[in-house]
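Example 3.2
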Amino acid sequence: MSTAIILLAAGSGWLYYKEKYGGGISFTSREKPQELEKVEFVAQPADEYDVIVVGTDPEGIAAAVSASRNGLKTLLVDGHDREILGGLMTLGWLNSIDMNYDVENKSIVPGAKMPVLNKGIFLEWYDKVEGDSFDVNTAANAFNKIVQNEELLDLHLKAKAIEPITEHGQEDLTVVEGVSITREDGTVQQVKAKAVIDATQDGDFAAAAGVPFTLGREDLGDMKSQMAVTLVFRLDNVDNEVWKQVRQRLSNDNNPNTGATEMSAWGYDEMQKYPAVNKERLKMRGLNIGRQNDGTILINALQIFGVDPFDPESRAEAFEIAKEEIPHVVKYMKELYPEFANVEFVDTAPELYVRESRHMKGMYRLTILDLLENRDQWDRIGFGSYAVDIQRTSPADNGAVVMDPPKYAIPFRSIVPQKVDNLLVVGRAASFDTLPHGSARVIPTGMATGESAGAAAKIAIDSEMTFRELAESKEDIKKLQDLINSKGMDVQPYTPKVHPYMEHEAYPGLKVAVYLGIAIGGYSNDFRLDDASNPQRFVNQWNIAKRVYPNSFKGDASASIAGIDEAGKQLLTLEQACYTIAKAVELDVARDQAQTELIGKGLLNPSTVDKIKDPNQLTNGDTYMLLKDALERVVGVKF
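Structure, written as tokens:
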């Protein structure tokens, strides 16, 4: 790797935002616990709606409420055995929100509350809870109030199955015409709709309709890996005195990435050293703690690997191995930290926190370069600014923060699927590459796409156009943007920020390295372009390129360092670098002739060589430029 990997000490970038901007964030005091309100829903939906939204996670709620408020008769339907709304936040107990703050807003008054990028329905809900850590009952009731106030919105829960009704359309497109619902009593009902929005966590409905997806890190050539799954658990006996001790410990910690507020705490990095009983499947990270109003806390820290989110047996197994491990985790906590001496395990979340599964192939696929360059999009429907937080994929992995973008736009085209029409897909299964997904997967961004999807249905229905036609019309996208802005969102155009790394002469090569997952900038966006490289690192980079483009690079780059002792500690020379490239592209050439051969075959630009300041000590930036030359020639892509 080009830089030191940034360890996720407390497991989520939100701790960084709290530390960086926490002085300006206000948190309400703890209140008396709310009783969980009963969610009323229709036993039998109507036979036809303007819009059907599948999934009652926050993104689905935002989509359904938006459609309703735009005058569309809407059905919000869920196919899980849920009795409350809010999905991941209220049943997965993910009660600390990864926020998108408007860090580029120059009008912020010192000490004022940091403005958020995602307004509209997200902010309406956010203002009803305790802060960016919240009580799950408060959150569920807030979602319920927003939904129940919509006269044009029907809610139907506990469906045993929800399947697409489709027909064959023009240009080999599949057209979704509604949903087939198997109700709780086993009866099947066909419900027609003018538009359908998939807000399921994993894009289940869209996949059933034939929408193409990649899985996990497939777009990086890794066909098996995906980010860890977590089971949040609850601990009791955390009264005000215990919480005071928690805050004292974390405020006195010299680690800048630790701290606590009235409702949340992040840190306890020593938990990463916890010796898991099931070391093949589990690992702890530092603790993300969300306080509840009943004297309990929720712990988001236990990572589970090798879980197939589409297999009920695999998900059930994840629950079992986590529940077997948690007593050992709690014992370790109690022994290590005196303030937790009397805590007791209560229970686990009803649902798993699955971070990554399907990534839709849409009309536009958000790439890491969109974030690297803070790009605006002409068809923007929301924004992101959260750090690119890539969680562990195995116990041996450390995870990484690829970079920290100040602001980037989500295009409407990224929620419009390929091959299927009359359907939009919102949330973390939308059309994002796996690296930008590390940022765009957060719930405020997902709710923005959901709200925009509900409004897009209004524009498309009124104009008698398909979503694909809408996505290709700048005039109609402008109508969509005007509509969502009028409803409280803020999707105005902006001028992208120019980072110092973008002005570095090796920036063209850095784009290639970041795209392949080679270069990591962390929260400071320091990609260490001027640091010295080494032969082993350059071989590693080519092995990654080979994994992503296996048909283009069939050679063995590692053969170039055979016989070099401790290749990771030696300086990388231009001659050695050229020899490594030659081995990677299967050129049978002597080490001292590799540079000439590469230039002759167009695999190395003479201008790249001319810019190398010291041929006896190549930097990371130098190697990225060499990588760029060869990739553009062999793969035929421009970055």
